[in-house]
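Morning!

This is the sequence you dropped in the shared folder:
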Amino acid sequence: MGYENENERQILARNIATEAMVLLKNENGVLPLENGKKVALLGRTQNATIIGGGGSGASRCDNPMQIRDELINAGINLEKGFDAFYQDADKKEKEEAKKQGMDMAGMDFEGLVASGIIYELFGKYQGITPEPVPGDELFSEGAKETDTAIVVIGRQTGGEECDRRIKDDYLLSDLEKELVKKTCDSFENVIIVLNVNGMIDLKWVKENERIKACIFMGTAGEKGAGALADLISGKAYFSGKLAQTSALKYEDYPTAEHFSCNKDDNKNIKSYEDYNLSATENGSIDKALSPVTAYIEDVYVGYRYFDSFEKDVCYPFGFGLGYASFKTEVINLVSVGGRALVSLKVKNTSEKFSGKETLQLYVHKPEGTQKRVYKELVDFEKTSELKPGAETNLALSFDLAELSVFNDMGEKGGEYVITKGEYILLLGNSSDSVSPCGKIEVAKDITVRKVTADIGIKACNKDKLELLDAGNIKEAEEVKSANIPTINISSDDLITEEITKHDYSFENIEKSDEIITLEDVKCGRNSIEEFVYQMTPEELAVLCNGYGPGLPFGGIGQKAPVTIQYPDGTDIGSNSHPSANPGYINPAIKKYGIYSCFYKDGPASVGKTAWPTGMMLACTFSKELAYEFGNACGREAEEQKVAAWLAPGLNIIRNPIEGRAFEYFSEDPYLCGTMGVNICKGAMENNKVTTCPKHFALNEQETYRRGSFKKNIDAVDSIVSSRAAREIYLKPFEMVVKNTDTVSFMSSFNKINGTFTAGNKVLCTDILRDEWGYDGAIVTDWGDMDFVVDGADAVAAGNDVVMPGGPPVIEQVLKGFEEKRVTLDEMRIAVIHLMNFVMKMENYEV
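The structure's back. C-alpha cells below.
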C-alpha cells in the first residue's frame, strides 16, 4: 500500500514539486547558483509563500516552507539590507492582518458549503496584496554587494465561484512593475520566481535582457519552497514542462472575448444578447441576467489554436528547460494490439548535469470533411534520471482510434471517423519543437463508432454563432523528404471497443415478505432490483439525497430536520458514520443494512498533506508521479474513513484567468485525462476509497457558474459544439470512466446548451452511462437544491444523489413523483447506482 507514515508523503510531495517547476529562461547558465552565492532577494511572497489555491481545492498547512528560509538552508547568502527590509515588511503585514482580520472561530465552513449559502456569502474577488518596494538607497547599496537578484512574484487570486482579473492580476501591478524595473536597473543578473496560482503575462520576462532566468514555481504545496531552493542551488535539476501556453498578450487567447470574470460589474458579463440569441428560447426566463460563456473557439484551445493559426507565443505548451541536454533517436514505428507504438533511444549529451527528458508525441491529421487542427497530443513519456552520457530506451503509444475526428450529425448523434490519408507523427520536447518521426497511411475512411446522443448547440442558436475555423492548415514540415518509418492500417487493425450497458428491469418482481438487506445482495441471495423494489417512494426519495438539513445555515448551529419520518414519527435516514458530519454523507437505513459513506474535498487531498496542485502535477508530465500522488491521497482518505475522495478536477484550462485553473491540469484533454486516470488508479488500486471526478462538465468559468439567487441571475450557459464538447471537454472524463473503476462522479452547476448539467439526461445517462458504461453514482455539486436544478428533474435525468440534499429536496423529489416528472423506476435505478458505490466501500458502522 505505502504512504502509511507522514515522512513518506512529505518526501513524495517534495519530489512532485521538484519535477513540476518549469525553467523558462536560463541565459548564460546563470542557474544553478554556486554554494554561498550572495543574492538580493526581493518580493513579499518570499515570506508568505503561496502553496495552493482556495475553496474546495485549497491546500492547507500550519507551517509551510518559506522561500526565504529555504534559500538560506540551501547555502544561498542573502544580501542583508533587502533581507531586513522584507522581514520588517512581513512582520508589519501580519500585525495589520491580525488587526483587520475577522474572527472566524466557531464558523463551520463545511456547513456553509453543505447548505449552499456559501455561494452567496463568498466568491468575492480579492485582489493581490500590494507589493512593498524598497527605496533607492537599498538598491544602490545592494548592487555593491552582489550582481544577482531574485524577485518573487506572487498570486493567490480567484478561486471557487470567482475568476481572476486581467488588470493587476494577469498583468503586473504598477508596484510590481516598479519593483522589477528597479531591480533590472540595479543588477546584472535578475532571476524571476513565479509563485502563482495560474498563468500570468510573461512577455516582460522574455523581452527583458537583464532577466537572465525565470522559474514557473506555481503552487507547489507545503514543500514547494524546499524544492525551489534545491533547484536554484543545483541540488536538484529542472524537468518540468508547461501544461498550458503562455501567449504574448492576453488578447491573443481565442477565449479572451468570450470569458466573463467580473461579478462586480454585470455590464461586462456576456449574455445571450451579446450573441443575438434569445434567453427565452434557451430556457432562461424572468432573470435579471442570463450569463453565457460561448465556446466560439470551438476545437482551437491552447496550442491547437496557436499552431493552427500560426500565432507566435511567449512560451509554448510542453516547454521547459533543464540543466542537461538530450539527443533522441527514433528506432521504429509499429502497429500492435490496436495501438501505434514509437520506440526511441534517449541520451543525455551533457558533460556535467544529470536530468530527465520528456518526449511528447503529436499527430497531424489529413484534410477531411471536418475542420482540423495542426496537431494534437497523443502520448508523452518521461525518462528516468540519466547521468551524463547515459542513455535509455523509451516507447510512446496510442490507441489507433485516437486518429478519428467526431462528425456531428445533429439530432442523429454523430460518428467518430478516421479519414483516409496520411497521418504524420511529430515528436519533440515541446509543442513548438517537433519533427516528423513516423507516418500512418489509411487507404479508406474507417468508422470507429457511432453515437446517438446529441450534446451540441441548440437549433435556435446554430445559425447565429460563427465558430472559429482555421481553414487550410499548413502541412507538417518536410514530411515528404523526411526519412521516417511508415505503416499502413485498416479497420482490421483497430480493436472494437467493448462497452457494457447496464439495464435494470423491475418487471415480474414480487415484493418480498421479508426484508432484503444489502448483505443479501452482496452474497447473491437477492438481486439489486429485488432489493430496491421493496422500498417505499419516501425511502427512495431519502436515498436520492445527501443526509443533512439542506437549509441555508443548516450546518452552523440552527436546529433543523435532517431527514423525513415514517408515519410513526421515526426517522427514515440516519448517520452511521463514526466521524463524518451531516451534509457530506448518504443516509443510512439500518433495517436495509445501508450505511453512510463519507465524501470529502478535494483535488489537493483531504486536508492532511498540502500537496502541489493539479496545475503543477500536470507540469511533471509524469504518469508515475500522478499514480503515486493518487496512492498517497487515497491513503490519507482511508485514514479518515473517507469513502469518496472528491477529486480529481478534470475540467480544461480554457482561459488563463480561470479561478480554479490551479486545481485543474491543462489546456490539453489528453494530458488532463492521463493525469486523472493515473491518480484514480493510484488511489483505488491501493486503498479502500473511490475517487469522484468533477465537475462534469464544461465548468471552465467560475463567474456565475450557479447564478445568484439573491440577484436573480441565472447559472452560466456553456454554449459549445458537439465536436468540441466530445473531443476536448468530455474527453478527460471519458478516459477516466473507461480506464478506471471509479464509482462516484460529480456533476457541475452550470448549464450546457441551455440545460443544467445535473438535469441533463443526454449527459448523465445517454453519454456517461449508455456510451461509456459507467454504473456508479452521480452526485450533484454541493448546494444544488436551492436554485440550480429541481431534485426530481435531477433524478429523472440520471443524476442519482442531490448534495447536500436533506428534507427540502426530499420533498422536491416526492412532489416530482406525484406530478409524474420522475417515475418510481427512475428513483429505484438512482438508488441502485448509489448502492453500487456503497457496496464497494468499507462498512465502518451500521
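Headline: The chain has three domains: 22-100+107-236, 313-493, 518-838.

More detail when I'm at my desk.
O.
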